[in-house]
Amino acid sequence: MKSTLFFFIFCFVTFVNLSQTLINNGGFITAQPGSFIYVNGSVANNNTGTLAVNGNGTPTSSELYVTQDVINNSTINADGYIRLLGNWVDNAIFNSTLGTVFFEGPNQFLGGTSITQFFNVTLDGSGIKTQQVDKIAKGTLDLQSLHLNTDLYGFFVTNPALNAVLRTTGFVSSANGGFLARTTQNTGMYLFPTGSNANTSANIPGSGTFRYRPVELNPNDANLNNYSVRLANLDASQESYNRNNAEPIICDANPLFYHQINRISGTSSADIGVCYIPASDGQWNDLARWNITTNGIWQDIPLVNLTNIPGFTKSVATSWNNFGDIPYILTNLSPPVPIINTLNQNGCAPLNASLQTNVINGVTYTWSTNGNNLGTGSNLNQLFINPGCYDITLTASIGNCSVSTTELSLICVDNSPNASFTSSTNQYFGGTENIIFTNNSSGADYYLWELGDGTSSSLSNPSVLYSGINENILVTLYAYSDNGCVDSAYTVIGYQEETIFYVPNTFTPDQDEFNQTWGPVFTQGFDEYNFDVYVFDRWGELIWESHDAKGRWDGTYGSKGADCQNGIYTWKIEYKPKETDKKVIVTGFINLMR
Question: Are residues 425 and 409 in the same domain?
């Protein structure tokens, strides 16, 4: 059912349900604050009709809820809320100083022939909101989590407040020719939340890789300006901005996307920050802009610095005021030719060389020799083992850009001798002993022995008489070549103290003054903390034990100390010599006589 209305005022009405199409063919329809109009269909405002949704921009305002389209061919005044599930078709006049239009449907179009001057626009519902003509928000544009596709048109936010554009995860995409524009009249960060999920100039939604790559723009003064931004989610060469046409200092430009940034009006310079994600976009250290006045080439922007913000790296053109051309692209500049600071180093193998260069921020350094990679970093310690001379190449890189320098025969390594020898024994038991050393070295011209007893020798194969030494002997051989290279080898001749002990074979625990206890007597050469002694009867039963070398058996057994019978008993001693880890076991017999 269609309704044709000429004059109607909804005043303090809580709910009015109008089915199908609400057509105003010249009347004056007013919804006063507090009223709610539900149109289960479309609204068509025709001829000289006026549709007024009154309020003060708050939830107490009147509210018009339309399940299909709003088609305006006359005048709509809306300081209240309009909630729309269909398309917006504005062909005439829309006035709003406080109101909000909520786009709450699935895929919706913002069309008509007029540049609607919304106050607040909020994207809600689902899908993509697509423009079919330029649109304006004089208050705020709240994207929330949705996608606004400006297509070939501009969406203008004329409120100069920093927070006039809001989002959670929403973004604005544009075809080639479209953009998001913002009015600025403050110093501070203005966000242009540009993104795209298309990789063509036509920006067909969903036809390519999704990228959200915003621009942050900070005017350098509080004068009135208008700036616009578009993310071109494709290779700039596809839109006639050939990435290979660039100043010599530019060696690489981002092939994934570029931005169109323009100052529509005003004269203020600004800090322009282009955001990117190094993990997926690559690492970039600079910005360039397309200059059509110089034969169509990418020109480097000076005074660019990198900063990190949550989720992004931002390449910032500082105090930029040249808005003659709108394309901007992330670039890498060719690094300066690196300088090898290391002086010529000559030495013996193995030679530990320190390779050094001057550090430039953002540049990575790779060292190589004769085609073989040595390592990375501005300072590299490298061990050269094989003799010979080495040409050292240093490569400085930024992204895909690199430049190299080479120093010929920077490192020269001489042959080194190999010291080696054997000794006639590796154990010394004290007293006087002659030890012979056999030299097995190679590549040496002369030798020096440090013999461990305070003496030295230059013989090839010395024979040394050691006497009266009661500790390990450290013997070191130094093998020298005529070019000053040296190698050394050493050995330790272990000193092992002779174990001296006595074990009595008889004792008489008869309560007189003599020979009342039995036990071994150890005087040297054993570890007193690693000692055990056991006594067994003739049936092999353990009747006494001690773990102290000074422990003594009194001829009794058991907890009550009963006297053992006269007879022959077996003993076993386990001890560790001082200089070894292997235990020694000795056994014997005791004659107990009372």
Answer: no
- Considering 252-256, 350-354, 480-484, the range whose residues carry the highest mean pLDDT is 252-256
Domain-embedded: residue 581: yes
Q: Name 279's Cβ contacts closer than 8 Å, sequence gap at least 6.
A: none
Round to whole Å and give the CA distance between 111 and 91. 8
**Is 508 part of any domain?**
yes
pTM: 0.65
**Dist. CA 303–CA 326, nearest whole Å:** 18
- Give the pair of three-digit tokens for residue 426: 């590796």
Do the beta carbons of residue 418 and residue 441 sit within 8 Å? Answer: yes
For the stretch 11-29, pLDDT in tens is: 444 455 555 789 999 899 9
* Boundary (domain end) residue, out of 370, 387, 414: 414
**Distance (Å, whole) CA 270 – CA 15:** 50
482 and 568 both lie in a single domain:
no
The DSSP annotation for 278-330 comes to: HHHH----EEEEEEGGGTSEEEEPSSEEEEEETTEEEEEEEEE---S--EEEE
Number of domains in the chain: 4
Last residue of a domain, one of 450, 474, 495: 495
Checking phi first, is residue 20 left (phi over 0); if not, alpha (psi -120 to 50) or beta?
Answer: left
Tell me: do 40 and 60 sit in the same domain.
yes
